[in-house]
Amino acid sequence: MTLFWHGHFASSQQKVRYPQFMYRQNRLLREQALGNFRSLLHAVARDPAMIIYLDTVSSKGNGKNIANENYARELLELFTFGVDNGYDQNDI
Fold first, then answer.
1. Residues 6+ apart with CB under 8 A from 29
2. Angle at 79 (CA atoms; ends 83, 20), nearest 5 degrees
3. pTM greater than the 0.90 cutoff
């Protein structure tokens, strides 16, 4: 299941470049592999390797009171609903 979730929540050492973050992400997936998907999604959304992988720092909307639209879109499209599956800009 750890490999399944790693395939679903795709990230790579080539982009992240911090082995300790990749190890930490693997440990997170291993610990939560058979648990609640919502809890896993929330944990992955705060995972340092995933934050780097999805370019959160350079994404549009890093201001204090501005939502990070690109990261929200990635979470919806890549990890939960898929592309064009009943959500709109207001959801993001």
1. 2, 5, 6, 9, 40, 44
2. 140
3. no
Q: What is the dihedral of CA 30, 35, 40, 42, to 10 degrees?
A: -140
State how far the Cα of 13 lies from the Cα of 18, in Å rounded to an integer: 7
State the Cα–Cα distance between residues 43 and 86, nearest whole angstrom.
24
DSSP conformational letter for 60 = S
- Cα 81 from Cα 2, distance rounded (Å): 21
> 20-47: per-residue pLDDT in tens?
999 999 999 999 999 999 999 999 989 9
Alpha-carbon separation of residue 73 from 14, 38, 39, 42 (angstroms): 23, 17, 19, 15
Confidence of residue 61 (pLDDT cuts 50, 70, 90): low
